[in-house]
Amino acid sequence: MAEVTAPMGGKIIDVKVNVGDVVNDGDEVVILEAMKMELPVVANEAGTVKEIKCKKGDAVEADAVLVLLG
Questions:
Q1: How far apart are CA 70 and CA 35, in angstroms?
Q2: Model-level pTM greater than 0.70?
Q3: Do residues 52 and 17 make contact, with C-beta atoms less than 8 angstroms apart?
Q4: According to the CATH classification, is domain 2-69 in 2.40.50.100?
Q5: pLDDT (tens digit, 9 = 90+) per residue, 9-40?
């Protein structure tokens, strides 16, 4: 199972996918706000969203698992 992780600590401002969605390598899955910038977090491989481990408004640490792909 592939993990999509936060590149740095910040706040989740949008989750672009739902469980069951099919994503391709490079598709945006989460938008993270860090250092007053919006950073798109993208899937690192194609797959189906199995689990979303964050929600809008969550504060996350660097390398936190945000989405699991199967």
A1: 31
A2: yes
A3: yes
A4: yes
A5: 999 999 999 999 999 999 999 999 999 999 99
